[in-house]
Amino acid sequence: MHRSNSFVASLSSFIFGSAVAFIHLVPASAQSTSDNVIYLNQAWSQDDRDWYYHFSQGAVVLSYDIFLNLEVADGQELFRSDANSERYGLITQPAGSPYNPDGLPIGISKTVVSMPQWPGEETGEFAGVTCAACHETQLNYKGKHVRIDGGPANTFDMQAYVQALNAAIRATLTDAVKFDRLAAHLGAASPEAKTSLRERFERQAALTYEYATRSIASFWPWGPARIDALSMISNRVTANLPGIPENTSTPIAPVKPPFLWNAPQGLWTQWAAIVQSPLARNLGETMGVYMPMNLRAKTPADGLFESNAAIPELHRVENQLARLAPPSWPEDVFGKIDREKAKSGKALFVEHCAGCHNAWPYRWTEPNKYGKRFVLVGLVPQSYVGTDHTQTEAVRPFAVTGQLSNNLPPELRGKDAVPMAAFKQSIQLAVLERAVAKLKLTPAELLDVNGYREQPQPPAPDRVYKAAPRDGVWATPPFLHNGSVPNLYEMLVPASERSK
């Protein structure tokens, strides 16, 4: 049925104005900074932001000194330059905060590995990837740059960025003049120093080459704001790191990163409602983006399941996200809200949307055995929604266990092939448990790290997509789980009338 312009306008006005959630906000206003960025009142301090933009979640991509001085593949421009970072949709950030002394773009961090977690693990300072690369938005409007903390990275093309990084690395290793420039920047003047640098560089280059040619290699480009994180995690955990290429899945189901405000309070975060524990969710994400893990040792005594897991940092970011408020529409930047239309839109939302999309003051779960309640998140069968179903089918159904066979849980042990989901989850759980054991947490601390979620969690539902609360949704384009709808107006009209 064709929806009238007044229907769309009223509902849009309500959505633009409905951004109050757990934290009561004063009417939104813009807070400008010296770098010409406008921050909204989302209950974070500038130190909160600066830490979130660049904290290390344990990812190791490339030696930090090499990354700082690496050139792009087809020129002498630095790969990490603002111009090149913006080319792939990263949000640039000037140097100045103690968390970013070298002016790296948001989402790029420094990871320090001071002690090897297993024999042969490389130590030193490394460039890594952190949460904000995929979970930070900047809306550019008439020369103004409005920052949305915890929003989806709606311009970042991660696949293209990693492929370009791989090309830059390969070009530097094969072009003697290019390599000599890198060596000169790093003070490697003698033949011995150059040889040592090349050996270090080649060893680390293999990681990004594997990423570009296996983990994220797809039939067609993902494009900006879309990442097939589930396939990336599966490929790295079950295929690349254990050396079982038969387990590789083609990443054909890129989706939009979810926004993160209210995520710690919600029952589910991922689009497909996969895991409830914040520790399992956050560590699983890190496993997909360059966190070192040992999945080739023969036994745990030899270092099998060791990792560079940064659990205290992941716990801190979860607690910080619990304080993050959804963004309110800044009327002094984007214009005044029509209050009458917003009132009409609220009634339309209740009638047409609230059955699936929870809204303030929210419907909650019953208290669990720890006395904690969580915001109910609607889960709608994909067959009912009618949108792209590939995320539920992208990862191959079965896995070859290889040399890990004898170190799996009893129900999987000794089998040559097992269900992929069970194989991946058993590896992730083994890595998580080993990392947690080293922290020697008390039962109360462990409960806190797990977000007071009951263990084991109930089985994840099959073939559903979440219908999350809509607070702050105006700031999260593009729309639908796969980012296929460019704006809210088109989201509210029949699919046949949308841009193709």
Task: Explain the overall architecture.
This protein is an alpha+beta fold. The chain has helices spanning 5-17, 46-54, 64-69, 82-87, 158-174, 176-185, 191-215, 229-240, 278-288, 311-322, 331-334, 339-352, 382-385, 420-439, 443-449, 488-491, and strands spanning 31-32, 37-39, 62-63, 108-113, 124-129, 136-141, 144-149, 378-381, 398-400, 417-419, 464-467. The chain has one domain. The protein contains 16 helices and eleven strands. A four-stranded mixed beta sheet has the order 1-2-7-6, with no helix packed on it. A three-stranded antiparallel beta sheet has the order 3-5-4. Strands 8-11 form a two-stranded antiparallel sheet. Helix 1 crosses helix 12, helix 5 (158-174) crosses helix 6 and helix 9 (278-288) crosses helix 10. The longest helix has 25 residues, at 191-215. The protein starts with a helix and ends in a 9-residue tail after the last helix. The model is unreliable at 19-29 (pLDDT under 50).
Tell how many strands the DSSP assignment holds. 11
- Trace the largest sheet across and list its strands: 1-2-7-6
Structural class of the helices, strands and pairings? alpha+beta
The overall pLDDT, averaged over residues, is 92
Report how far the terminal alpha carbons are from each other. 19 Å
The major pleated sheet works out as: 4 strands, mixed
Strand content: 5-15%
Name its key features.
three-stranded antiparallel beta sheet, 500 residues, alpha+beta, 35% helix, 16 helices, four-stranded mixed beta sheet
